[in-house]
Write a structure and sequence with these properties.
Largest sheet: 10 strands, mixed
Distance between the termini: 108 Å
Strand content: 5-15%
Structural class: alpha/beta
Number of helices: 17
């Protein structure tokens, strides 16, 4: 090839290359996936397990890219062996190591000890009371470090049929139906004993007695597994006179509200409420979406309300349980600065539309909601006990649920709580532990109303 032809070839190649670059310049990110323009951009990967978050996370990833020029790849993965999968990906040479992931707070100790949860680089946002409650901070705290941002939560509250309460108040000549919103279990029994039920009502108070999430509030104020943050092995207190008294009340409830643990479930209890068969129940925040959907389909023609979990009586206080899903920066990430920027972005004002897009209630506390019942769940979350993080006590909830089931069916409260405490303490300390027996407390539990569900109490 002569010199002239070589120059022509070089010129042609240059023109082609310029054309390719010009073409690349018109490409933009689509659905958070890489385009030719982005191959050189800093990229972080986010893992999560709940498909209801997909649209929300993808939209936030694109908005974050526009604001920072940092790309975020989102990946929906199986919730089975989730941390194990994150650990395996982090230790391999694969390119899909998650830089950020979403996980429930009870897994944070395991994640931190495996190097999968880096302490937050900036704690000012989370320490601001205007942003997060102490319950939210406790949920993501481990050994004095914040190892994630609280993203959203689940907790329980009292759900009631407002329409029925207004009917009862009108028939009884009461000026305000709000006086029938109970502040205690004793109040529920008094209302059930004093007033007749509206037509179609089968149950005054009914809840899923087979699931510890809906039972825990009976005993939650008087026991601790790991202290406020659920991470201190020296703070285990399950067997005490207050917890015995509280669980005795729970057992006594069986004579008023006969519920078969083997035949009820949360779904069946919620369906009974939607069918207008129940006045009061204990529900988690997913009930809001279920009620809205049923109302839209013409299957729920009532007004309803959410209130604080009822205490037992004026002397015995209750406290519910909560689970917080946290945004965690992987300790193995090679892009920690970018990952921290992204979790701060999601945990900040960008959480304002989380509920509207996903039905998940943000842990960030400065939200305003059109539905006041969402705010009622927020208040219950603020008052809740975060599920503990200690791996040695990971079976506590299963064992506590078994304990409640036995007590509901008539087992001795003192014996069951003593046995549970000894088991958990032995696991946590790796030494056999024996509790000193306590005498049953002599306390007035519930009023003697004579009410029993199914009887004619009018």
């Amino acid at each position: 090839m002569n010199l002239k032809k070589r120059w022509i070839s070089v010129l042609v190649m240059a023109v082609v290359l310029v054309g390719m670059i010009a073409g690349i310049a018109y490409l933009t990110p689509s659905n958070g996936k890489m385009t030719l323009l982005d191959w050189h951009k800093e990229t972080i990967e986010l893992w999560y397990t709940d498909d209801s978050l997909t649209d929300y996370l993808n939209s936030k990833a694109l908005a974050f890219y526009d604001a920072t020029d940092i790309r975020v790849e989102t990946k929906l993965v199986s919730g089975l062996e989730y941390l194990e999968a994150i650990n395996k990906a982090s230790l391999s040479d694969a390119q899909e190591t998650p830089d950020v992931y979403i996980v429930t707070n009870d897994s944070l100790e395991k994640a931190y000890l495996a190097g999968l949860a880096a302490p937050l680089s900036d704690t000012s946002i989370i320490e601001d009371d205007a942003n997060y409650s102490q319950a939210a901070r406790n949920a993501v705290s481990y050994q004095g470090n914040y190892v994630g941002y609280p993203m959203y939560f689940e907790t329980s509250a009292l759900l009631y049929n407002k329409t029925y309460l207004e009917q009862i108040a009108q028939e009884a000549g009461l000026e305000n139906a709000d006086t029938l919103i109970p502040s205690s279990i004793a109040d529920i029994l008094s209302v059930a004993d004093q007033y007749s039920t509206p037509e179609n009502v089968e149950y005054f108070f009914r809840w899923d007695v087979s699931d510890i999430f809906y039972n825990y509030f009976f005993i939650g104020n008087y026991i601790t597994v790991g202290g406020a943050a659920g991470d201190d092995k020296n703070l285990i207190d399950i067997y005490n006179t207050e917890s015995i008294a509280s669980l005795k009340v729970y057992q006594e409830m069986n004579q008023f509200f006969s519920i078969d643990t083997k035949e009820t479930s949360y779904d069946s209890v919620m369906q009974e409420f939607l069918d207008g068969k129940t006045i009061y129940t204990i529900a988690t925040s997913d009930c809001l979406g279920r009620i809205e959907e049923a109302a839209a389909n013409g299957d729920f023609d009532f007004e309803y309300g959410i209130a604080k979990l009822p205490d037992i009586n004026q002397d015995m206080i209750t406290k519910g349980m909560s689970v917080t899903n946290a945004l965690v920066v992987n300790g193995y990430s090679e892009h920690k600065d970018a990952a921290n920027r992204f979790v701060e972005y999601l945990a900040g004002e960008e959480s304002a539309d989380l509920y509207e897009m996903t039905g998940k209630i943000p842990a960030r506390s400065q939200q305003q909601y059109a539905n006041e019942n969402v705010s009622a769940f927020v208040q219950n979350y603020i008052d809740s006990v975060p599920i503990p993080k200690m791996a040695e006590a990971s079976n506590f909830w299963v064992e506590l649920e078994i304990c409640f089931a036995k007590v509901w069916d008539g087992a001795d409260v003192n014996t069951e709580l003593k046995s549970l405490s000894e088991q958990i303490r032995s696991q946590v300390t790796a030494q056999t532990y024996t509790e000193e027996p306590l005498e049953d407390p002599q306390v007035e539990l519930l009023p003697d109303t004579g009410y029993q569900e199914g009887n004619d109490n009018e």
